[in-house]
Structure formats: C-alpha cells, structure tokens
C-alpha cells in the first residue's frame, strides 16, 4: 500500500466533501453578494478546513479507541464499525497515530494564522472553536458525543454548517452577515443527519461501551422518527433560503436530492439489522453533497447572469 492510499485510509479522507461544500458555499456567497474573491485565501481556507476535518476524524478514532468504544464495536456481532480500524485492529501504534493526528491540527492552525493576518484576527475564533469541538467531541472531560443530550448533533451542525460557511465568507470579505448563516443551515442540517444516521450502524455496541448517543437514549424506533424529521427540516430550510432571497428560485432543484434518502426510509422497519443502515448512510451523504453542490451552482449562476 503506497503512502497516499495509507493516509486516505487512516484519515477517512473520503468524508471531506461534507467540509468542502460549505467552504465553497461561503466563498461563492462572498463573490455573488459582495463581489469579493481572493483565490489564495480560498486555497488556504480549503487546506485549513480539510486539515481540521481530518484531525476531527482521527482524534475521534483515537479517543473512541481509548474509551473502548471501537473495540466494543469490533467485537460485537452484527455491528458495523465506522472507524479507520488502524487502532482497533492493531495495525498502527497509538503513538504514531497520535502524532499524525496532532500534525493535522498544527496544519489547520497554521492556515488559520495566515488567514487571520490577511482577513482579521476574528478568524482565530473559528480556529479555536473548531479545534475545541473536534477534540472534546469524544475526549474527556467533556465527551459531549457520549452524553446523549443533543450536544453532539448541535456541535456537528455548527462545525459543518455555520462555521465553515460564515468563516469562509468572512475570510473573503472581512465582514459578518446574516446571509451566510442562513445559507449554512441546509447543508449543516444534512451533515448533522449524516452523522446522526451513522450511529444506527453500531448503537448496540455504543450502549455496551457507555456511549450514550441519541440513538441509544431514545431507542431505534424513536431515533428513526427523528432522523426523518431532520431530513424534512433540512429541505424546509432550503425553501426558507429561497423565500428570503438568500438563494435564487432555481436552487429549488436541490429538493430533488431528497428522494434518495426517502426511498431508503421506505424500506426500513422500526427495528433493523445494522447492515440495513448502510444504504441510509450512503443516501444521506449523497443528499448532503448533491444538495450543497446545486446550492453553490445556483448561487454562482445568479452572480454571473
């Protein structure tokens, strides 16, 4: 296995579209609404955001391994493990894994410092908030991803919605605005839905390990109801963005992306085997990425015509 393939597997690199989309949205919003676009700052923002996201993936694996959650998922029959498997499978020393993890955070912080010099010290608030959310999602003493009170869902919404969209907008313009906040809501909610749905894959193992996700707290039946509600809230917020002029009316084409997850929901029972949720995960990610892309393209077309 070459080093690049190894890096992608360790960091779960394939998840980065859910971070790239909001950064692109915020940048396009700055160009369309304020006529501001700085390619160098855009590239540094992308590098920093991706590094922060990969740090989040790895630090979650690190602390889930230390907390015994990943080992429990690996040893529980029928559970689908969502970590990289390098720690729980004994494929890499914990010290080397930790070194890679903190190196990604260092790169993200370095990008934040460059952006703070160019766009304003307020950029550092996004850097600090992102680092704290990523680390304390599973790390003690907060471990809010283990508390089952909705803290983790709110954190995902902020970290993959409001912060990257508003942050990338601020980097380009040096100003804050309500528009990018509204623009962030559909993609933020869809990414929250994606992360919520992934708990179905191993919720019984989470319960055994003491990780109290909302799926564990509510049970499978009630959590599935909430999952559907979250889907409709996501697309409802898209309509709100069009109504308030944040997006052009043809951005409503993004509503078509709701059908993939809806079709999967129809095939689910109130209780299902863990493997039955893999299609829901795929459909959720597809909806998040495609909806965000259509939103960005619609906004860009509006700025060009």
From TrEMBL:
What GO molecular functions are on record for this protein?
prenyltransferase activity
Q: Where are the transmembrane segments?
A: 12-33, 39-56, 96-117, 123-142, 154-171, 177-196, 229-256
**What Pfam families does this protein map onto?**
UbiA (PF01040)
- Provide the membrane topology annotation: Multi-pass membrane protein
Q: Which GO terms describe its biological process?
A: menaquinone biosynthetic process; vitamin K biosynthetic process
Q: Which UniProt keywords apply?
A: Membrane, Menaquinone biosynthesis, Transferase, Transmembrane, Transmembrane helix
Q: Where in the cell is it found?
A: Membrane
| Descriptive protein name | 1,4-dihydroxy-2-naphthoate octaprenyltransferase
Q: Please give the organism.
A: Paenibacillus typhae
């Amino acid at each position: 296995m070459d080093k690049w393939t190894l890096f992608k597997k360790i960091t779960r690199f394939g998840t980065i579209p859910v971070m790239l989309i909001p950064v692109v949205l915020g940048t396009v919003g700055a160009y369309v609404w304020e006529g501001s676009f700085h390619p160098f700052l855009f590239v540094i923002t992308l590098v920093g955001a991706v590094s922060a996201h990969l740090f989040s993936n790895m630090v979650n694996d690190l602390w889930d391994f230390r907390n015994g959650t990943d080992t429990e998922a690996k040893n529980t029959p029928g559970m689908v493990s969502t970590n990289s498997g390098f720690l729980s499978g004994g494929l890499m020393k914990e010290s080397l894994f930790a070194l890679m993890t903190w190196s990604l955070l260092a790169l993200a912080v370095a990008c934040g410092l460059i952006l703070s010099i160019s766009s304003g010290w307020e950029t550092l608030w996004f850097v600090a908030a992102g680092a704290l959310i990523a680390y304390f999602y599973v790390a003690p003493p907060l471990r809010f991803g283990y508390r089952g009170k909705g803290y983790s869902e709110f954190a995902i919404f902020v970290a993959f919605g409001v912060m990257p969209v508003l942050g990338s907008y601020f980097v380009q313009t040096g100003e804050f605005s309500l528009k990018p906040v509204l623009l962030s809501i559909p993609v933020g909610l869809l990414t929250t839905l994606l992360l919520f749905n992934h708990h179905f894959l191993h919720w019984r193992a989470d319960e055994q390990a003491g990780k109290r996700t909302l799926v564990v707290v509510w049970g499978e039946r009630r959590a599935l109801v909430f999952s559907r509600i979250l889907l409709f809230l996501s697309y409802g917020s898209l309509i709100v963005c069009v109504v308030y002029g944040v997006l052009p009316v043809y951005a409503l084409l993004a509503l078509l992306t709701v059908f993939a997850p809806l079709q999967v929901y129809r095939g689910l029972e109130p209780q299902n085997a863990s493997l039955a949720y893999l299609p829901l995960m795929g459909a959720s990610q597809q909806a998040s990425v495609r909806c965000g892309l259509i939103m960005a393209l619609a906004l860009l077309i509006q700025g060009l015509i």
